[in-house]
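Example record for the data management plan.
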Amino acid sequence: MDECLICAKHRGTGPLHSAHEIWRDDLVVVSHLPPRDAPVLLGHLFVEPLRHAPHIDDLTDVEAAAVGSTVRRAAIGLRAEVDPEHVFSAIIGTAVPHFHQHVYPRYRGTPESIAWHDSAGWAEAPRGGDTEVAALAERLRPYFTGV
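Corresponding structural encoding:
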């Protein structure tokens, strides 16, 4: 599907292609939220099927299992590398019609007034630009490759 932004990202083109890819296999891609004009929450990851599938129910059983296993590995990596209070996951993809699951940390010290789904809303949450995101992506890679 040529007009899909996530499919274009997976091909290395389009406006999302600068995302820091952490890992991919023949079914799933993991990347970090790209810092565009401002630093982003460190550890905000995306898990996406490589094949175009607009919704969760469009995934095959094999793809759904691969996504689930990959989300688990993302959570293990985030717990080990950034020591968050929680690791959350959400499927909210209303803006781009290609299934993508968000996996992101809630850092220790986040005020209770910050909703679970707005971990990035805490002004003191660790953020980073390209250098910091690339460094975290490198530290997370072994949790997917087993190396």
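Summary line stored alongside the record: The chain has a mean pLDDT of 93.
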